[in-house]
Amino acid sequence: MNPLLAKLQPYPFERLRTLFTGVTPNPDFTPISLGIGEPKHPTPAFIRHALTDGLAGLEAYPATAGDLKLRESFTGWLQRRYGVAVDAATQVLPVNGSREALFALAQTVVDASGPVPPVVISPDPFYQIYEGSTLLAGAEIVYAPSVPERNFAVDWDSVPEEVWARTQLIFVCSPGNPTGAVMPLDEWRKLFALSDRYGFVIAADECYSEIYFRDEPPLGGLEAATELGRTDFKNLVMLTSLSKRSNVPGLRSGFVAGDAEIIKAFLLYRTYHGSAMGGAVAAASIAAWGDEAHVVENRAMYRAKFAAVTPLLEAVMDVRLPDAAFYLWAGVPAAWNDDDQAFARALYAQYNVTVLPGSFLAREVGGVNPGQGRVRMALVAGTDECTEAARRIVDFIQNRALS
C-alpha cells in the first residue's frame, strides 16, 4: 500500500458521524441538515434536456482536452463574467468537478524528488482536498490562518520567508469555504509578487463565485491578474464548477483555466489519469455555461434565504452575512466555552438539526484551531426549512441560557 495514505485524516463528515454515535435525536422534530454543502435547489430543466440529448454520443471515447465547442463555452463565460481573454486552445481544460481537479493539479505541480520536502500552503480552515492532495503528492502542508478581525481574510503574512522559499503550490479559496470571505485585489497583488519571487503556483478555487450578496460580484484570480497586467496568467490556475452555480452537483462538471504551460502539463497528467468528460456531460455543460438567467434566479433564492435566516441567528450567535458562498460561519455562544463539538451534538440531540463543528474544518497550529468555537451552516435547502432550522437553533440557545 502507498504509505502516504496513512497520513490522511478522517473526512469532516466521518468525524461528524462519530460525534453523533449513540445520540438519538428528539423525535418531536423532523430532521434538518445544515451540515453538508450540497445544493438542493432544482436543476434547471434545460440542463437536464441537454444532458439527455447528448446521450447520442455514447459510442465515442471523449477527448481529455474536450472539443473546441466545450472549451469555447468556458472562455466565453470567462469573458462575459470577468472580462478576461483566455485562449480556448491552450489555456482551458474540462474537469470532472473542481474536487478531482484540485487533487490532480497538486499531483501535476508538486516535485517531491528533492532532499527537502516541498511545501504546499493552505488556508485554515480549509477544504480538506487541499490537505489530502498535498500529502499524497509527498509534500508538507503549512496552514495560514483566517483572521476573524479581518473578516476572515487569510493571514499570508504569518508564513515565514523560509517556508515561502520551499513553497511550490498554494491553494486560495475565494469566496472561501467555510467563511465566505472574498480576497481583494491588494491580496492578489501580494500573492503574485510572492509567486514571482519564489516560483510557486497559485491554485484559485472559485466554485462559490456566483453566490454573492452584494451588488459587486466577487473578484476572480484571472480577473485580478488581468487588472494587474499579468495577462499570461503566469503560475496561476483557476478552478470552477457548475455544481453550485447551476445546481448540478451530480453532473461533476467544471473547468480549469490559466497559465498555458501548467495547462499543458495538466493535460498530459489527465491523459494518463483517464479523466475525460463524457459527451452527454459536455453537452449539458455547454448549455449551462451559456445561460445566466438560471444563475440570477438561483442567486436570488439564496439572497432571500439568507435575508430570512441571518437576522434570527444574529440575535443569539456571533454571525453575519458573508461576502459570498452559501455558508454561515457562526460563533457558538459563550455558554459552550468554545466547544463547537458539544454544541453540534446537543443541537442534534435536542432539536434534530445538524451543523458541522468548525474545528473539523481546520487544523491546530501553535496551539490554536481557528475553527474552534464556530460551526458551519450550509443554507442549501429551501427557505422554509432553513428558517425552521434557525428558529430551532434560537430556541436551543435561549433555553440553555434560561437553564
TrEMBL record:
Chain ranges of the Aminotransferase class I/classII large domain: 32-393
InterPro entries: Aminotransferase_I/II_large, DapC_beta/gammaproteobac, LL-DAP_aminotransferase, PyrdxlP-dep_Trfase, PyrdxlP-dep_Trfase_major, PyrdxlP-dep_Trfase_small
Top-level taxon of origin: Bacteria
Record keyword Secreted present: no
Alphabetical keyword list: Aminotransferase, Transferase
Enzyme class, UniProt record, top EC level: transferase
E.C. number: 2.6.1.17
Pfam entry (one): Aminotran_1_2
Cofactor dependency: pyridoxal 5'-phosphate
GO biological process annotation, one example: lysine biosynthetic process via diaminopimelate
GO MF assignments: pyridoxal phosphate binding; succinyldiaminopimelate transaminase activity
Record's protein name: Succinyldiaminopimelate transaminase
